[in-house]
Write a sequence for this structure.
């Protein structure tokens, strides 16, 4: 049994075939080394001149083209007819093309995106609800790492067709803080305090100047927009420090940040809602006197007069 | 420095604590809101050490037992902004002085030594010089831009920089901001204060870059100066940089 297998093996590996096999192995090893050397040289030459994504594209181009060329050389050495193979590959290619329309769409979108360059590796981008750092830009997809360390793969087709924000494209950014202060607040004093807070914070850029906009008369507060500029890497440091500083400084200056509140009116629009304080000796005495007085005959009031006085509750008890 | 003894030094708003223990050096610092009177490193008693100090540790070796606190220029350019904008008519020169807060470079060993750290004696606010899409991150410094030596306030942790502005443009120069490339300036110790090299800025119009000339030697206006710290980046004699910037409101962005 083993003798017959051995005879078949030794019969197959004729000296000529053995020589071909050795040549093929040498070609593969040299070919792989050549591709790697070429990649290294190209990487060094383009290190200072090209962006990371272009460098990656060139690297992959060299690797894939080199691998295909190497494959054809090996097949040729093994005696496979390349022409017939290419003919068959054409037919197979059409079939694969129909079956892989999405991939082709992603590929073409990837090429468009690489030429348009909306972001680079290392940029922080926002797409929909996803925010993260771009890890790689490939021909089919873009890989993103979110800040809570999740890996997200976004197909290029989707990326090209949707709105995308490159958060770190420019070196400086503005942080907008919406503030609500009580209606009694002195607006000039508030603006002065906000400017001082911005000046004292080292992460807040002195120029461009902070933006203070009186944006709205809110339901419960006067609403202001406080926009401060910062260097893109200082986001967290500024956010943490400035919020604390605003809170502390407002407390020191007596500037109230009101809670949302709702005023209810009964009867007249501008009169306050009548209330009775319970367990208050003075109020109780007045209520008792009013009750006793009501037993005496008095002039009847109209419904509209009662409403104007705040309903049925005696005005003194407000 | 004695071994296992804590030392404290005050430099404007910065307070530094330092200790040597065997081959290791321990350093902690704290920044205050207000400036304090400066003092060299001094031995302190254990009871006066703040409890929540956070020490950093350096493995330096047993050889150096000395530490030097060297005044150095900040690590980024400083944008000087006069309290009142200065106007220089065409073909006129103006000399003014500005005090730049120094950084404290802690160096263990002598004469070369090892730099333990560099800390600002006064933390300056960041500012942006240039366009919002492409510019330079600098420190902001408001100055009185005094015109005579007598007016300069003596501060132990600030270096006086004499700046001469030469307006060679056909129209008046309104000087609102000047970017001082402090990385090219050395620090000199004078009898009563610190100095930097002289700076000459030749303004040739808003559309042209300004020509900055940095003095090679100690400023001639003061006497008896000794260089205590080299410039971070040695510069050519002149630099062509966009030094002036008209203050613009960017609130529309």
């Amino acid at each position: 049994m083993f003798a017959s297998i051995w005879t078949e093996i030794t019969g197959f590996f004729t000296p000529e075939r053995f020589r071909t096999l050795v040549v093929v192995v040498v070609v593969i090893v040299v070919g792989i080394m050549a591709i790697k050397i070429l990649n290294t040289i190209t990487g060094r030459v383009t290190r200072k001149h090209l962006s990371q994504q272009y460098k990656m594209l060139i690297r992959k181009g060299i690797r894939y083209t080199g691998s295909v060329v190497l494959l054809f050389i090996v097949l040729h050495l093994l005696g496979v007819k390349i022409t017939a193979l290419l003919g068959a590959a054409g037919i197979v290619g059409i079939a694969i093309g129909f079956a892989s329309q999405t991939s082709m769409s992603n590929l073409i979108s990837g090429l468009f995106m690489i030429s348009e360059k909306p972001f680079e590796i290392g940029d922080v981008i926002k797409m929909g609800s996803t925010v993260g750092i771009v890890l790689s830009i490939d021909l089919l997809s873009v890989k993103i790492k979110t800040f809570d360390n999740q890996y997200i793969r976004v197909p290029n087709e989707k990326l090209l067709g949707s709105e995308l924000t490159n958060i770190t494209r420019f070196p400086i950014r503005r942080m907008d803080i919406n503030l609500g202060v009580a209606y009694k607040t002195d607006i000039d004093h508030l603006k002065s305090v906000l400017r001082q807070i911005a000046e004292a914070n080292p992460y807040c850029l002195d120029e461009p100047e902070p933006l203070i906009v009186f944006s709205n008369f809110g339901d419960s507060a006067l609403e202001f927009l406080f926009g401060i500029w910062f260097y893109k890497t200082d986001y967290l440091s500024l956010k943490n420090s400035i919020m604390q500083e605003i809170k502390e400084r407002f407390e020191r200056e007596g500037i109230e940040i009101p809670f949302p509140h709702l005023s209810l009116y009964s009867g007249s629009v501008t009169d306050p809602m009548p209330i009775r304080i319970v367990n208050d000796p003075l109020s109780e005495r007045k209520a008792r006197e009013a009750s006793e007085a009501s037993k005496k005959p008095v002039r009847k009031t109209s419904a509209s007069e009662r409403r104007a006085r705040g309903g049925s509750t005696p005005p003194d008890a407000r | 420095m004695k071994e296992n003894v804590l030392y404290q030094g005050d430099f404007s708003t910065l307070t530094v604590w330092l200790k040597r223990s065997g081959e290791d050096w321990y350093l902690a610092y704290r920044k205050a809101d207000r400036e304090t009177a400066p003092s060299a490193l001094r031995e302190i008693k254990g009871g006066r050490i703040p409890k929540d100090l956070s020490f950093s540790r350096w493995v330096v070796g047993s050889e150096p037992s000395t530490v030097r606190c060297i005044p150095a220029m900040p690590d980024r350019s400083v944008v000087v902004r006069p309290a009142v904008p200065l106007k220089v008519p065409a073909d006129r020169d103006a000399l003014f002085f500005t005090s730049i807060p120094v950084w404290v470079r802690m160096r263990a060993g002598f004469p070369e030594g090892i730099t333990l750290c560099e800390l600002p004696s006064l933390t300056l606010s960041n500012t942006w010089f240039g366009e919002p899409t492409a510019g330079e991150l600098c420190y902001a410094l408001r100055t009185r831009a005094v015109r005579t030596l007598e007016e300069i306030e003596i501060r132990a942790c600030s270096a006086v920089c004499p700046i001469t502005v030469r307006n060679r443009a056909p129209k008046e120069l309104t000087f609102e901001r000047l970017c001082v490339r402090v990385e090219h300036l050395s620090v000199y110790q004078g009898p009563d204060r610190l100095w930097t090299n002289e700076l000459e800025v030749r303004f040739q119009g808003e559309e042209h870059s300004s020509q900055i000339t940095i003095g090679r030697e100690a400023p001639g206006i003061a006497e008896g100066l000794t260089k205590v710290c080299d410039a971070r980046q040695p510069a050519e004699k002149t630099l062509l940089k966009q030094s002036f910037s008209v203050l613009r409101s960017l609130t529309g962005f």
Notes: Residues 71-241 of chain B form one domain. Chain B touches chain A at residues 79, 81, 123-129, 132-135, 137, 140, 177, 247, 249-251, 253 (CB under 8 Å).
